[in-house]
Specification:
heterodimer, A: 182 residues, elongated, B: 292 residues, five-stranded antiparallel sheet, two-stranded antiparallel ribbon, 7 strands
Chain lengths: 182, 292
């Protein structure tokens, strides 16, 4: 609960010094995939297709075996994917890297095309820092609302935050989205 | 008797009492002013864990610190852990307040950089916390449609011929338009594959590998086409396009995340420029003659 409150207060990738400045999914179809890490190399279209096949295989879906094997090598090697998503592909919530093996996709329909898009052009969800813009009580309200979305039995589910009106509701929406991407 | 008969009017007594009253009022006002008791509170708000000279120490920050240092929440923290964290945070607040009194920002470059960064983030927050409407996003997408397209992909070969073989290069280009390239075909005019282009690459990679001029020539070629000979400083180049998949515009749904990001970044840039202009406008800046 305090984690959710912390996210709403300081944001995710909001550049606030106390924000969770989580990892950003590189855009591998660009000359410099990661603005933060210049060592991450671009990938070729075939490399990306191989990675997609690898992910399909890891999710238990039908995949091209040879391409998946090449993708596994890229995942654990030149692509540097393992660095955030862990060697087993199960991700690391602490840095906002999602599990790639559970078949739950945050963007697109999880098909080959949307996986290709995510790898080629990157993703980066953002939750703004609401500190100073919403009162502490409003932040608590938004946190309670977001928490109730994933813990429906933990408390009587409130309506979307009203006391601090639009800002708290916007914060709740942003935090919910960012929490999902984190 | 100094005050005289109380039943009789006395100007001297009136002035003395008025003076005493004024003095007492001044003393009370001065005491209140310098101790600021009238504006302070003795109650710590529920969202804080302490007030240090009326500056709050956030409960959320305190809980986070407990979690970071000891991996425990408030219920499971020992009294010593709680005390240690709170003491550290109070100490920090005291030193920050003292830092303000000493005006450390005027001399410490780290403090100055941190303050500049904080103000920039504060300005940016106005843009990041403003959620644009779908209409605004659509309008932005429509105005910058060229930005939202896939990266083109091509499979191209760069064949090079000696500078002395200009006629041969032209004949080779003609032959390539009718045939799939083979080493034998190229060898007839002493041509070889430069090896600069790989099997299938994104446009940006081809541009890096071949250079801007050759890339521009290649990007216009359809599948199975050969370029005219292009004279370079080292050789004559003939490009053969196996496959050219040009950039495809993304529809709004596919581009939405990037549109939102770009719109926010534009808004941040706009706000920063505006704020800086405002600060410069209201500032009194004097510049020494020798650096004007």
């Amino acid at each position: 609960m305090s984690d959710v409150e912390q996210v709403i207060k300081y944001g995710i990738r909001s550049h606030h010094p106390k924000a969770w400045n989580l990892a950003i999914m590189p855009a591998y179809a660009t000359p410099r995939p990661s603005a933060r890490d210049g060592k991450i190399p671009p990938l070729s279209p075939q490399n990306i297709r191989d990675l997609v096949e690898f992910l399909m295989r890891e999710q238990g879906r039908s995949a091209d075996g040879a391409a998946a094997a090449r993708g596994a090598g890229l995942f654990a090697g030149a692509g540097g994917c393992y660095d955030c998503h862990a060697v087993d592909g199960k991700g690391d919530a602490a840095i906002g890297a999602p599990n790639l093996t559970d078949g739950i996709t945050l963007y697109g329909d999880g098909g080959r095309e949307s996986l290709f898009m995510s790898i080629a052009y990157g993703r980066q969800g953002l939750c703004p820092a609401w500190v100073g813009r919403i009162s502490p009580a409003g932040i608590r309200e938004a946190a309670l609302f977001v928490h109730s979305l994933s813990h429906p039995n933990s408390l009587a589910r409130p309506q979307a935050p009203a006391a601090n009106s639009a800002s708290a509701a916007a914060a709740a929406a942003a935090a919910a989205a960012a929490a999902a991407s984190g | 008797m100094a005050l005289g008969n109380i039943t009789q009017v006395s100007s001297r007594r009136s002035f003395m009492l008025m003076g005493c009253g004024a003095l007492l009022g001044l003393l009370m006002a001065g005491y209140s002013l310098f101790t600021a008791r009238g504006t302070s509170t003795l109650v710590v708000p529920p969202e804080d864990v302490a007030l240090v000279n009326q500056q709050p120490i956030s409960r959320l920050d305190y809980l986070q610190q407990l979690q970071t240092l000891y991996g425990v929440d408030l219920r499971h923290a020992t009294a010593t852990q709680r005390r240690t964290v709170l003491d550290d945070m109070i100490r920090e607040e005291l030193f920050v307040q003292r830092g303000k009194e000493l005006d450390v920002a005027s001399t410490d470059p780290d403090v100055r950089a941190a303050m500049v960064n904080s103000v920039e983030q504060e300005i940016a927050a106005d843009a990041t916390t403003a959620q644009p409407t779908e209409t605004q996003l659509h309008a932005y997408y429509a105005a910058h449609r060229a930005r939202y397209a896939s990266e083109g992909i091509m499979s191209v070969r760069d064949y090079v011929f000696p500078l002395s073989e200009s006629q041969g290069a032209a004949e080779a280009a003609e032959a390539l338009r009718a045939n799939i390239p083979t080493p034998a075909l190229l060898a007839r005019w002493h041509g070889v594959d430069s090896g600069k282009a790989a099997d299938e690459e994104f446009y940006f990679a081809v541009k890096i590998h071949l250079g801007g001029a050759l890339f521009e020539a290649a990007s216009t070629l359809p599948d199975g086409a050969a370029s005219v000979p292009i004279v370079g400083s080292d050789a004559i180049h003939v490009l053969y396009m196996f496959k050219n998949k040009k950039p495809v515009p993304f529809d709004f749904d596919a581009a939405r995340d990037r549109v939102l990001n770009d719109l926010r970044n534009d808004a941040i840039g706009h706000l920063r420029t505006g704020d800086e202009a405002f600060l410069r406008k209201r500032a009194n800046v004097l510049i020494a003659d020798d650096v004007r």
